Amino acid sequence: MFVLRCRWQSSSRASLAGLQRCFSLQSSLHPTAVATETSSSFPVTNPATAETITHLETIPVEALDVLVQQAAIAQPLWHKQGVNARSDVMMRWYHAILENQDYLAALMTSEQGKPLTESRGEVVYAASFIRWFAEEAPRHYGETFPPNGAERILTIRQPVGVCCSITPWNFPLAMIARKAGAALAAGCSVLTKPAHQTPLSAQALLELAYQAGVPRDIMPLVVTPPDSVKETGKMLATHPTIRKLSFTGSTAVGKVLMQQAASNIKKLSLELGGNAPFIVLADADLDAAVQGAIASKFRNSGQTCVCTNRFLVHSSLHKAFTNKLSDEMLKLRLGNGMEKDITQGPLIDDNAVVKVEGFVQDAVDKGATLVQGGQRSALGGSFFQPTLLDYVTPNMKLFQEEVFGPVAGVTPFDSIEEAISLSNATSSGLASYVYGQNLSDLMNISEALEYGMVGVNTGIISAPQAPFGGVKESGLGREGSSHGLDDYTEIKYINMKLN
After folding, report:
1. Looking at residue 308, what is its pLDDT?
2. 305 tagged catalytic
3. Catalytic residue among 305, 307, 402, 473
4. For residues 408 and 405, what is the distance between their CA atoms, to the nearest angstrom?
5. Which CA distances in Å does 65 have to 60, 225, 232?
6. pLDDT score, position 92
7. pTM > 0.70
8. Which of 111, 118, 271, 473 does the annotation list as catalytic?
9. 163 classed as catalytic
10. Which residues of the chain have pLDDT under 50?
11. Counting beta carbons within 10 angstroms of the beta carbon of residue 62, is it exposed (0 to 12), middle (13 to 18) or buried (19 or more)?
12. Is the Cβ–Cβ distance between 189 and 75 less than 8 Å?
C-alpha cells in the first residue's frame, strides 16, 4: 500500500523543515507545494506559531473549466466500472488513510491548529466515511411497484454526474471524505475545493486516493488564489456541466451559492451554520451533563458547526451546573496542538478572535456575568481563553448567533415549555442536545426541537451511518448514511409495457 514519503511519529514534535520536505507532490492537473513563494502561489501558515509551512501553487479560475470537462469525460467510465470495482478502490483508499494516520494528523494540526489527539481522531473519522460508502454502494437499490396490468413499473438510481464540493477548514479531512465518499460510491466525479487555510490536508488525502486507484480526472483538487474565493464559488455554482454542489460553511455564503446555483437548477447539499442549544433538565445526571457539555462545546476550540452555542439549564440545577462546568473548564489546557496534553488549540486566525471578543463584550455589556476567561491568551497570536458567561439572555449575540469559538453561555429556565421555546427561537436548526432521565420528556422534547439532529444524553452525535444535516437556515440535504448516498443520484422511473 502506498505510504507518503514522510511518516510522522505522534510522540515527537514536528520540525518546520521536516514538514516542508513532505510536500513535493507533483501532478500536471493539481497545484504543488513549493519551498519559496512564486507569482502563482500563496503561503500556508501554522495558526499556533504564525510560521509559514510551505507555499502552494494555484490555478487560475478560468482554468477550472478544463477540470470540469475532464471530469465530465471520466465520469461515465468510472460509473461503468461497476459498483464492486468502485468499492474495491475506495477500500484501498480507506486503508491508505489509516496507514498514514500519524502523518495526516500532524499535518492537520500544523495547518489547522487543533490538538494532535483530535487530529488523529479526525483521520479515523474521515476514513470511516470512505469505508461506509464503499460498503453501502453495492446495496444502493432501486424499487419495483405493483403493476396495473400488462406492464412493469420500476425505478433505478443513476449518478448525478459531475459534482463539486466546497469544504471548510475546521474539519479538513472529514468534510472531504463525507462528500467524496458518497460521490464516488454513486459513480459521480467530484471536484474538491478545500479552504485556503487547510489545502495541504486535502492535497495529501487526494494523493492517497489517486494511489489507491481513483482516477485524477474523477476527483481533481481545486486550489485557486485565496483572493478569488468568490469568483471560484460562482464559477462552480453556475457551471452548467456541474450538476450538484455540496457546500459546508457559513449560512451567508450558502445563501449566495444557492442563488447562483438556481441559474441552472443545480442539485444542492448545504450544511450551514448552527446555534445549538444544550438543555439540562431538572432530573439530568449532572456529572454526565457537564462531561457532555465539555465535549460538545470545546472540541476544536469551539470551532464546529455542531458545537453547543447556548446552555439552557433548569433553575434547580443552574448554580451547580455552572460551578461544575467552570471547574472542568479550568482543566482545559491551551497551547500548540503539537505539544503533549494540549486540549485547546488556537482559533484559525485573528478575524475569528475579533469576532469572539465582540460576542463576549456584547454579552457583558448587556448584563451577562463573566465567570472565567473572556480575553486573548497570554500565549499571543490567535489563542483565546476558554470562556464561561452566566445569565445569557436572548437579546445577546451569543444567544442569537453562532460564536464559533471557546465561549460557553448559560441561561436558566423554569419549565420544559420555556426550554423548547428558547431553543427554537433562532433561524438555525442544525444540532441540539438534551440531558435528562424521563424518557417521555426526552422523546417529546426531541420531537419538538426544530433541529435536524438531537443528541440525547450525549455530546457527540456524528457517525458515518447517520444522516447529518439541518433544517431552516442550517441547510438542505443529508450527508452520511444511505440518505447521503441518495443525494448523489437521480431516480429514474421506468414503465415497461409487456405483450
Report:
1. 97
2. yes
3. 305
4. 9
5. 10, 16, 11
6. 98
7. yes
8. 271
9. no
10. 1-31
11. exposed
12. yes
